[in-house]
């Protein structure tokens, strides 16, 4: 099944566990993200307990999020196929298969980036999901398992051969996790190896980064994750740059007003306790680089109510 990839012309939002839930994706979409995916969902876990609270919350999404994929992980072709089949009718634009997660608890089960070590198994997983899904399927991979085993081009060719519509390459090995620099040469190698669109990922935090990634690798589009936390305006910056339009970065006032809105959205969706807990990290990111941000971060860590957090943010703005 083909996928309309016009939305890949800008920058997409990569999933981050505990960060890119529904509300944050909506904010990023409003500020110009081209596409996003859910946080990754275990195919086996979903099939065993589809109504479990964790699964329901991970799969929660809004119609106005724009192009949204459901990201699945697993190593059993039958489980991946059935999960893809069941989820295809729930309002998602595509199914994304995660073969890039480096977390020990994921790779210890032979899932995520561990599948980079088993190309034949990876191919069977992709093929099974494609046959069962009623949606286009994309795949996210890393450069390889370690520097001695850089096999992203091989995995990309397998994905293309199975019928994948696009592939995202995080240009770090599993051994690197998120340290060091992404090796763009690997993305360029993948671009030369396949005919399907390749999305470049790794070390993109500005339009300049996105533009140089595309120029150096020939990739169709780019996707980013960590750089968007606290700065979802990065999507607007990239979109403006690609369209040749002027871009003005947000002021600290605009950033903290967005933090208040983000807090209110989380509270409305998940309740006060969870909203306050999850916003602690977000607020630190929104305020990063401003004078007194360390003091604000320490204060927010002690608060438990939405009104207290809002007051702390307003006080910080007034003092500034």
SSE layout:
Blueprint: E1 11-13, H1 22-30, E2 36-37, E3 41-42, H2 43-48, H3 53-59, E4 68-73, H4 77-87, E5 94-99, H5 104-107, H6 119-132, E6 137-144, H7 152-162, E7 166-173, H8 184-193, E8 198-201, H9 207-217, E9 221-224, H10 234-243, H11 252-270, H12 272-287, H13 293-300, H14 306-319
User: How far is it from the N-terminal to the C-terminal residue, by CA?
Assistant: 53 Å
User: Which strand-content bin applies to the residues?
Assistant: 5-15%
Taken in chain order, the helices and strands follow as EHEEHHEHEHHEHEHEHEHHHHH
Main β sheet profile? 9 strands, parallel
Query: Which structural class matches the secondary elements?
Result: alpha/beta
| Model regions low in confidence, pLDDT < 50 over at least 5 residues | none
* Cα shape: globular
In DSSP terms (H or I, runs of 4 or more residues), the helix count works out at: 14
Using only CA atoms, what is the Rg? 20 Å
Beta-strand segment tally: 9
Share of residues in helices: 40-55%
Structure in a nutshell:
With 320 residues, the protein is of the alpha/beta class. The protein contains 14 helices and nine strands. Helix 4 links the parallel strand 4 and strand 5.
Account of the protein in words:
It contains 14 helices and 9 strands. The chain has helices at residues 22-30, 43-48, 53-59, 77-87, 104-107, 119-132, 152-162, 184-193, 207-217, 234-243, 252-270, 272-287, 293-300, 306-319, and strands spanning 11-13, 36-37, 41-42, 68-73, 94-99, 137-144, 166-173, 198-201, 221-224. Strands 1, 2, 3, 4, 5, 6, 7, 8 and 9 form a 9-stranded parallel sheet that branches. The longest helix has 19 residues, at 252-270. The chain is globular, with a radius of gyration of 20 Å. The termini are far apart.
